[in-house]
Write a structure and sequence with these properties.
This protein has one domain. Helices cover about 75% and strands about 0% of the residues. The protein is built from five helices and no strands. Helix 2 packs across helix 4, helix 2 runs parallel beside helix 5 and helix 4 packs across helix 5.
C-alpha cells in the first residue's frame, strides 16, 4: 500500500526535516518530562525557560502538545475544586 502526499504536506515535511537540530528530544523524552513542565507552569514559573527542549518539542508536536494541555487542564480542575 502506498501513501500519496499532496504538495503542501510534502513541503511541510521537508521544512520540518530541515529545521531539526541535534539537541532535540523525541516524544518519549518529552513525555517523561511533561509532569515537571506542567508543575512549573502551575507554580507560575517559566517552564519554557527551565525546560527549553520540552517547550520546543511541544511547539512542533501536536500529540505531545495535546497531552500537555490535557494534563494541565486536569490539574487545574483538581486545584480549583479543592
Amino acid at each position: 500500500m502506498t501513501a500519496e502526499l499532496d504538495l503542501n504536506s510534502l513541503k511541510k515535511l521537508v521544512r520540518e526535516i530541515l529545521a531539526t537540530t541535534p539537541d532535540e528530544i523525541g516524544c518519549d523524552e518529552c513525555f517523561d518530562q511533561l509532569d515537571r513542565f506542567v508543575e512549573l507552569e502551575l507554580a507560575g514559573r517559566s517552564a519554557a525557560e527551565a525546560l527549553p527542549l520540552v517547550q520546543k518539542h511541544l511547539e512542533r508536536c501536536a500529540n505531545c502538545r495535546e497531552e500537555f494541555e490535557a494534563l494541565l487542564a486536569a490539574l487545574r480542575g483538581i486545584a480549583s475544586s479543592a
